[in-house]
Design goal:
The chain is about 30% helix and about 20% strand. The chain is α/β, with parallel strands linked by helices. This is F-box/LRR-repeat protein 3.
Length: about 350
C-alpha cells in the first residue's frame, strides 16, 4: 500500500502470514494504518532518509499511538543525521516506552543514535526480558554501563548485542557469561573517538574475556576502531577473542604487530590506512598466528611483493576474500607487479588480481 504524498519517513512491516510496506508516510496514511488495525504485525521498521527534526517527530508520534499492538521487532534507523538526537529526550522516551509496555514479546530492537536512557531500558527489561534476543544500540550517549548491565542481567535469551566500547565492562562480560545466560552469537563493539586525546578508553581484565569466551566459544566478536594512533594503548595488550576487526583510521605498525600476537581467533581484518612503513613482518606474524583468517582488506598501506606472496602462501586456500589495492604492493627483486598475479593465484587456487584505483 502506498500513497502519492511525500515525506521523509518510510516504514516497512512484515509478518509470517502477510506482508505490508508503507512508503512516504504522512499524517493521512498514518491515521489510516492506526485505525485499520494493521499494526499487530510482527515487524515494524522506520528508516529516515533526511535529517529533519519534523521527520523524527512524526516517527515518535506514530510510536506513541501503538497502544494496541504487540511488536516482535522494532528498528529505528536514521540514514541521515541528525534526527532523533535533536528531539526533546522526554518526547522520544515517552513514545518508546509505549512500545516497550505494550509489546510484551519484543525480540529484536535496533535503536542506534537515539536518546534512549537507563530508565527506559529498565522498562524494556520489565516487559520483554523473556523474549529479547537482539539489541543494537550503538551511539546512545544517555545509556550508562549500569543500564546495559541491567539488560544483560535480566535478558538471559539475548543472543546478539551491539554497543559502544564505553558501555563494555568487566561486569557486563561476566553477566553475559553466567550459567543462566544463553551463549551469545554476535557481539559488536564500536570503539570511536571524535576528538584526539579527549576520550578515555578503559582496560578490561583478561579474566573477563576468558570467562566470556568459555561460555560462548563460537561467538562472533566484531570490533570497529575509529581511533587516532595515540589512543590504541589500552588495546591488544593480551589475548583478545576478536574475530572480525576493522580499522577505519590509520593504525600503526606497532598496533598491527600486537594484533598478530593477541588475536588468534581472527577471521577478518580490514585496515583502512597505515602510512608509508611496509607491513611485511606484521602480515607474516598474522598469517602465522591467526589460523582462522579467511578475509583481509588493505587500503592505504605498503607491503613488499615478496612478503605478500609469503603471506598468501601461508594462508592458502582459506583466504576466501583478498582485497588489496595495486598501489599497496611494492615490487622487489623477487616479484614484479606482473608476476605477483600468477604467484598469488597459484597459492589461492583461483584467479586473483589486485584491485585497481578508478581512473575517473
Amino acid at each position: 500500500m502506498a500513497c502519492g504524498e511525500t515525506t521523509s519517513w518510510e516504514a516497512s512491516e512484515d509478518s509470517l502470514s502477510q506482508g505490508l510496506e508503507i512508503h512516504h508516510l504522512t499524517p493521512f496514511t498514518t491515521g489510516r494504518f492506526l485505525q485499520d488495525g494493521q499494526w499487530s504485525k510482527e515487524l515494524v521498521e522506520w528508516r529516515q532518509v533526511d535529517s529533519s527534526k519534523e521527520s523524527a517527530e512524526a516517527a515518535c508520534d506514530i510510536l506513541s499511538q501503538l497502544v494496541n499492538c504487540s511488536l516482535k521487532t522494532l528498528g529505528l534507523i536514521s540514514t541521515a543525521r541528525p534526527s532523533f538526537m535533536d528531539l526533546p529526550k522526554s518526547h522520544f522516551i515517552s513514545a518508546l516506552t509505549v512500545v516497550f509496555v505494550n509489546s510484551k514479546s519484543l525480540s529484536s530492537l535496533k535503536i542506534d543514535d537515539t536518546p534512549v536512557d537507563d530508565p527506559s531500558l529498565k522498562v524494556l527489561v520489565a516487559n520483554n526480558s523473556d523474549t529479547l534476543k537482539l539489541l543494537k544500540m550503538s551511539s546512545c550517549p544517555h545509556v550508562s554501563p549500569a543500564g546495559i548491565l541491567c539488560v544483560a542481567d535480566q535478558c538471559h535469551g539475548l543472543r546478539e548485542l551491539a554497543l559502544n566500547y564505553h558501555l563494555l565492562s568487566d561486569e557486563l562480560l561476566l553477566a553475559l557469561s553466567s550459567e543462566k545466560h544463553v551463549r551469545l552469537e554476535h557481539l559488536r563493539i564500536d570503539v570511536v573517538s571524535e576528538n584526539p586525546g579527549q576520550t578515555h578508553f578503559h582496560t578490561l581484565e583478561k579474566s573477563s574475556w576468558d570467562a566470556f569466551i568459555r561460555h560462548s566459544p563460537k561467538v562472533n566478536l566484531v570490533m570497529y576502531f575509529f581511533l587516532y594512533e595515540e589512543e590504541f594503548d589500552p588495546f591488544f595488550r593480551y589475548e583478545t577473542p576478536v574475530t572480525h576487526l576493522y580499522f577505519g583510521r590509520s593504525v600503526s605498525k606497532e598496533v598491527l604487530g600486537r594484533v598478530g600476537m593477541t588475536c588468534p581467533r581472527l577471521v577478518e581484518l580490514v585496515v583502512c590506512a597505515n602510512g608509508l612503513r611496509p607491513l611485511d613482518e606484521e602480515l607474516i606474524r598474522i598469517a602465522e598466528r591467526c589460523k582462522n583468517l579467511s578475509a583481509i582488506g588493505l587500503g592505504e598501506c605498503e607491503v613488499s611483493c615478496s612478503a605478500f606472496v609469503e603471506f598468501v602462501k601461508m594462508c592458502g586456500h582459506r583466504l576466501s576474500q583478498l582485497s588489496i589495492m595495486e598501489e599497496v604492493l611494492i615490487p622487489d627483486q623477487k616479484y614484479s607487479l606482473e608476476q605477483i598475479h600468477w604467484e598469488v593465484s597459484k597459492h589461492l587456487g583461483r584467479v586473483w588480481f589486485p584491485d585497481m584505483m578508478p581512473t575517473w
